[in-house]
Write a structure and sequence with these properties.
Strand order of the largest sheet: 1-3-6-5
Oligomer: single chain
Number of domains: 1
Radius of gyration: 21 Å
CATH topology: OB fold (Dihydrolipoamide Acetyltransferase, E2P)
Shape: elongated
Length: 90
């Protein structure tokens, strides 16, 4: 027989690692083709000129240049317009 009493089971020991989302390169910084500019879930920031958007909404640089952020109004599904941040590479 065991000389130690049975211990209880732990139920809250599951956790996933962080996804490292966010802005990776800020306005005015140099960028090379293919570099990640923003990692995001959903379309919080929109891809403008000189950038392209990946399948997981990550914004990459399509050419070498300097990152720039600007506010623009985008049309929503309902027809209403809302301000969103647009990422461009100049």
């Amino acid at each position: 027989m065991s000389h130690v009493k049975a211990g209880g089971t732990s139920k809250n020991n599951r956790d996933s690692p962080g996804q490292r989302l966010g802005v990776k390169l800020y306005g005015g910084q140099k960028v090379k083709t293919g570099q990640v500019i923003v990692r995001q879930v959903g379309l919080n920031k929109r891809a403008g000129d000189g950038t392209f958007i990946g399948r997981d909404y990550t914004i990459h640089a399509a050419k070498d240049g300097i990152v720039a952020y600007s506010q623009r109004r985008f049309k929503l599904f309902t027809g209403k317009t809302a301000p969103r941040t647009e990422v461009t590479v100049v």
